[in-house]
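Quick one:
INPUT:
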């Protein structure tokens, strides 16, 4: 029996049907489109069985599947090694084309190249698109074609290019939905993927909470953040719609979205930053890397209320306010002299919005070892940060209920830690 010729669209970090560039082009091609998602064991095998991000991905896919059911279609869910899955798919279906949106992380680039080579050898046309960012790879460069390594000139060039666009084009996929393949693929239970539901939830994003973002963003007790970051990470919202909105409504918030793209292009251009300092002359720093100190930082028992509240919020919810992230990161690297990679790995495990480029970029910024980083002699004083941004202790009391009962003494005195950090950095920076 002759198989029906089909196109496959491979969902990854773009878990939505609306304004999805790769999906738009897939639906606009010549054959019925089967939507596909692969639970990649090379990623999943490193995660706890109740990982909240897997629950969120699962729920987002279920939402897509419900939307598809309304038009007589469904999403094909697979689990395994990506290469093995594709080898089985080319025998299961008569695949003519495969479409997907690009990912800029080193693992994804290598994976996508291998899969593309395999498909091409099997006479299957592969098409990939920019969807995760407004400007990618080498679209924002200096006059000599080299990537920017300082944020402000990158931002200025980014804005200049965006204004030439007028606005980022948004893609109407809904009028093409009739081109989805008609099928009823079984949607698996979460347990069939090898996971259980997490008690930690990804919150719904809310743009109305950031109307006064410039004035309120540094005060964690006000809860005036958008909760968009996990949705951006997994693509349940369109970056184009979001940037166009921010350009109209909130330039400060737009700047934060540009920071995200800056770090993505840094990671793409300098993949070594995943495991190495961007500034290699900082490689000589002699980190203390005391495991007991690290444990106290992880558990939020350092005796510094702002640091401890942040870590407890992270451990309980998967979120941490951005101002507090800077304080806890600086404390780990400067006060405790623990390598930023330890903190980066812990955030990667806990953060709902973990995105490699931003996580590495921000940790190296805090440590002083990254591009456009805070200077090494800048050491946040957690007590001053608390007085400036949580003067009444509202945020701290939310996460440290025992605070008023007589809180722990700080595990290290600030002035001593600051002097030690500056001396250690100065001695370790290679000439």
């Amino acid at each position: 029996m002759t198989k029906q010729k089909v196109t496959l669209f491979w969902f990854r970090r773009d878990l939505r049907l609306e304004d999805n560039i790769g999906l738009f082009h897939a639906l606009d091609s010549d054959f019925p489109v089967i939507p596909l998602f692969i639970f990649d064991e090379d990623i999943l095998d490193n995660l706890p069985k109740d990982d909240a991000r897997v629950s969120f991905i699962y729920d987002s896919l279920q939402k897509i599947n419900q939307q598809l059911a309304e038009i007589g279609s469904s999403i094909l869910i697979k689990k395994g090694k990506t290469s093995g899955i594709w080898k089985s798919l080319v025998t299961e279906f008569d695949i003519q084309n495969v479409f997907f949106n690009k990912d800029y992380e080193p693992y994804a680039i290598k994976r996508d190249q291998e899969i593309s080579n395999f498909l091409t050898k099997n006479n299957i046309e592969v098409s990939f698109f920019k969807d995760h960012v407004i400007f990618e790879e080498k679209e924002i460069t200096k006059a000599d074609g080299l990537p920017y390594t300082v944020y402000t000139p990158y931002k200025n060039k980014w804005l200049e290019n965006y204004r030439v666009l007028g606005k980022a084009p948004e893609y109407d996929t809904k009028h093409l939905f009739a081109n989805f393949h008609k099928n009823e693929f079984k949607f698996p239970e979460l347990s069939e993927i090898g996971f259980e539901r997490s008690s930690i939830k990804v919150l719904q994003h809310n743009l109305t909470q950031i109307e006064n973002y410039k004035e309120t963003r540094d005060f964690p007790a006000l809860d005036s953040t958008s909760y968009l970051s996990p949705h951006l990470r997994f693509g349940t919202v369109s970056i184009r719609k979001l940037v166009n909105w921010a350009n109209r409504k909130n330039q400060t918030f737009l700047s934060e979205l540009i920071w995200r793209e800056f770090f993505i292009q840094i990671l793409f251009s300098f993949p070594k930053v995943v495991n190495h300092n961007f500034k290699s002359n900082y490689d000589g720093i002699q980190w203390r890397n005391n495991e007991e100190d690290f444990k106290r930082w992880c558990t939020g028992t350092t005796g510094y209320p702002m640091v401890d509240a942040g870590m407890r919020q992270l451990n309980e919810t998967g979120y941490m306010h951005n101002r507090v992230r800077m304080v806890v990161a600086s404390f780990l690297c400067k006060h405790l002299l623990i390598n930023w990679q330890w903190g980066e790995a812990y955030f990667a495990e806990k953060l709902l919005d973990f995105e490699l480029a931003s996580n590495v970029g921000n940790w190296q910024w805090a440590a002083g070892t990254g591009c456009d980083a805070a200077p090494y002699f800048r050491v946040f004083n957690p007590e001053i940060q608390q007085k400036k941004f949580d003067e009444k202790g509202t945020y701290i009391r939310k996460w440290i209920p025992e605070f008023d009962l007589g809180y722990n003494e700080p595990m290290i005195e600030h002035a001593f830690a600051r002097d030690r950090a500056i001396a250690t950095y100065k001695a370790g920076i290679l000439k």
